[in-house]
Structures
1.
Amino acid sequence: MKIIEPSVQLISEIDGAEMLKAIERAGRTCYKSEDLITEGSAIKFVRCLINDNHDAMLEHAPSISIKFICDRGVSHEIVRHRLFSFAQESTRYCNYSKIKFSRGLTFIKPCFWEEDSEPYYLWERSMRMAEIDYIDLVVKHQVPPEQARTVLPNSLKTELIVTGNVRAWRHFFKLRTAIDSHPQMRQVAFMALDLLSSKIDYLFDGLTPPKI
C-alpha cells in the first residue's frame, strides 16, 4: 500500500502571449476594431473583456489540458464540469494486483487529518483492509477487476486528464477554490490555478478567496 500527496501537471504547451492575442483577435471582431491591434494591446483588451464579463471571447484561446492526481471522490466532483473533456484511469480495466501497480493500491493522503491522529489511524486501517480484500478477490478468487473494484474506497488514487478552454477553467476555479468547497477539491484546484497563473498573465487573476 502506498499513500501519496495529490498533484497536478500541465499537459499542453502554453504560450500565454499567443493566447491573449487569439482572444483579442476574436474580441475585436465584435467591435470591428482590428485596426487598434498593436504589439502590446492584447493585455489591456483582454482585461477589459474580463471586467465587462464578456467571457465568451475567452473560448477562442487554445484549450488547456491538466493532469490531476487525486482521489476518486475529488475526481467525481471534477467530472461534473460538463464543458471539459476527460480521460480517467479506469478501475474496470486496471488490475492493481499486477507488477506495474506494485501489486497493491495507492491512496491519496487526506489533507485534513494529522498523521498521528486517531481519525488518520482509522482511515489508514480502512485503506489497508480495502487493499487486502481487493487483492484477495482478484488473486485468490480470480474475480475480474471490474467486479473487485466494488470494494475500492474514495481515497483510491486516480489520474484524470482534463481539457477545456479558458472560460471553462475560470468557471472551475471560481467554484472549486471557494471556501465552502471540499478541502481536498480546494487543495488540487489551487494547485492547478497556481500552475496556470504562473504561465499566463492576467487570465486567472482575482478569481478566488484567500487560501486557508
Note: The chain has one domain: 1-13+63-212.
2.
Amino acid sequence: MLLGPRLLAALSLRLRLLHLRSLGQIVVGIADNSIVPLPGSMDVFTIWLAASRPRLWFYYAIMGTVGSLIGGYFTYLLARAGGKQALERRLRKKQAQRVYRQFDRWGAGAVAIPALLPPPFPIVPSLLAAGALQFPPRRFLGALALGRGIRFIVVAGLGAFYGSAIVGFFSQYYKPALLILIGLAVLASLAGLVEYSRRRNASG
C-alpha cells in the first residue's frame, strides 16, 4: 500500500526537524567543550529534547555524546598543537600542575571522570591537558565517549521520565533561550577556529 502525500509530507517534516535538532546538539556540543565553554548547555538542551520526544531519548543521548566528542577532540587538537607552553599560558600554574598529576595517576580516567561529572566541575582543563601531554587520540576519545555517554544517557533518561513537567516549563521560554544558546555556541566555535588557526601558524 502506497503512502499518501499527506503522510509523506508529515514524515518529511519530522525528519527535517530531527535533523535540525541533531545539528543543534552538534553545534552546542562543540561550544560546550571549547576553550570558551558554555557549562551545562548541552545538558539543558538534551533534557529539553528528550522531554519533548520521550521515545527518542536514547537517540538524543547518543547525539549529545557525538557533539561532545567533536567539540572535545577539537579542543584536544588545539592543545596538542600548542603543547605545554600554550596550556600553561591559559591555566594558572598550580591548576596546570594539578591536571598533570591527575593524568600521571589516573591516565584515561583523568578525562572520563570530569566528562561524567555535572557542572560546575570543569572538563576543558582535562581536554587541554590531554592534548598538551600528547595523550593517545584513541584513548582520549574512548575515555571522553565513556564519560559523556554515561552522563547523557542519565540526563536524557531524566528528561524523558519527567517530560511533561519539563516541557511545560520550557514552553514559554525555549525559543528565545534556544536562539541565544545556539548563537553563543556559534560564536564560541568561531573563536575556537580562530585560536586553532593561530596556534597552528605559530607552531608551523
Note: The chain has nine helices and no strands.
3.
Amino acid sequence: MIEIAYRKQTGLFLFFFLGSISLSLSAQTDTYRQVWNEFQFTRTISDKWVTEINLGSAFSNTLAENNIIKTNVQRNVRIWGHYYLSPRWKLSPFIAYYYNKDVPDIGQFKSNEWRFAIQGIYYIHKIGYTLSTRMRGELRFIQDENLVYNNFYRYRQQLKFLKPINSQLLRKGVFYFVSSDEIFLRSGVKSNGLTFFDRNRFSAGGGYIATDDLQLELTYVNEYLPRDNANQLFHALSLTVTFNNFLPNLKKRLGAKPVDSNQPD
C-alpha cells in the first residue's frame, strides 16, 4: 500500500513538473541566481520531543544589482517543536518571522512576514537508504507595498530520498546523497487552470555528519514559479549547518576543568 501511495504521489509531482515546463515554453521567464544559508540548532527535551531554532538568510541578484553577494534579500528565524509520534511519523508545528528586503517573488520592496505552519513527515527506512514524504500547511501574513498585512494559505508536499555513501547507516563520519522534489499549492489566486500551483522546488546534493552534534549539507536548488506576467526561475546554492544540543555542549566545554600539565602521566 505504501508503494502504491508513493507511485500516486510521484505521478502528481511529475504532472506538475511537466506542466511547469510546458508553461515556461510559452511565457517569458525571469532567471535569478541565489545563495541560501541556514543554521539549525536542535535540543533534545525527551524521548518524544525535540525543539529547534533556525536562522536563515538568502542572497540574490535583483533587477537593480547583478552581484549575488551584495544583495541580502531575506532573513528569517523559525522556532519548531518536533514530536516523534512513532519511528515512522514526526509531527512539527512552527512559528517564523521573515524580513523580506528585496524578494523577487513578493516584490522589490521591504516587507515583514509572519508564518505559522504544521507539518507531518512519514519515513520509510530501508537498509542503505531512506524515503520520506512531508506534508505542510502554512498560514502566511505578508505586508504589501502599503504596509498592509494580507493572509495566504499554502500547502506543500515533498518527496525525499537520502542515501549514505560510505556506510549503510547515517552516523559520525558518513557522507550521504540527498534529493527531493516539492510542490507548493496556494490560495488567493484564480480557480481555473494551474494558477493555484505556486511553484515546484527540486534539490540535489550531499551532506556530511562530522560528529554526533554537527552536520553539514550542500545542495543545488532549482525552483520554478509560473506567473501571469513573467515566470520566475531560481538557481540556488543552499548550505545548511545543523548543531545538536549546542548550548549544553558549549556549557560542558566552558565548564571543563583545565588539565594540569604538572601532573604525572
Note: The longest helix spans residues 2-25.
